[in-house]
Specification:
The chain has 184 residues and is an alpha/beta fold. It has one domain (2-183): Rossmann fold. The chain has helices at 2-14, 16-19, 27-34, 53-60, 75-84, 98-101, 120-133, 153-159, and strands at 44-47, 68-72, 89-92, 106-111, 134-144, 161-169, 176-183. Helix 4 (53-60) links the parallel strand 1 (44-47) and strand 2 (68-72). Helix 3 (27-34) crosses helix 4. The protein is globular and about 40 Å long. It starts with a helix and ends with a strand.
Amino acid sequence: MFQDTKLFLKEALRNPRMVSAVAPSSPALARAMAEGLGPGSGPVVEFGPGTGRLTEAILAAGVPPAKLTLFEMNEEFVRHLRHRFPGVTVVHGPAQTAPDHMGATAARVISGLPLLSMPHPLREDIVGAAFQVLAPGGVYVQFTYGPKSPLTPGQMVRLGLEVGHSRKVWGNLPPARVLHFRRA
């Protein structure tokens, strides 16, 4: 875990806008993001895995490595993830390219991306891509440090989404909310 934190801090200092966090996700947040997953969950996609804290929780929940696909833009993180998680598919590219790599088969998309630090059109592109790879009934799980959804009401309408389950995770720096988005 120390190596993960060291890599995270190095990359956060090198490119703070891309990392956009003060610390890696806590184990408590990772567990909350992976809640409800298991061996029979179906394919899972993760956007912005960073050093793999959420990835670790997804695998610990029982999702087989062969059913997990990660989308990461940072080259150092990609190398780290490929070494740390053999059998997991790691795509070196942005989340919004997910539909170019897979069909609508995912049961869940879990996002550690800092949507609040992104322009509104990019947020919509990323969440739209998530719903292009989600199977019917699939769920997009996003955490946020803000008090509101990272999507505006207009974006929710345009994308045909509703936000359901929301949970505050106090054991994270800073505290975070976990949101579950579904097709309306």
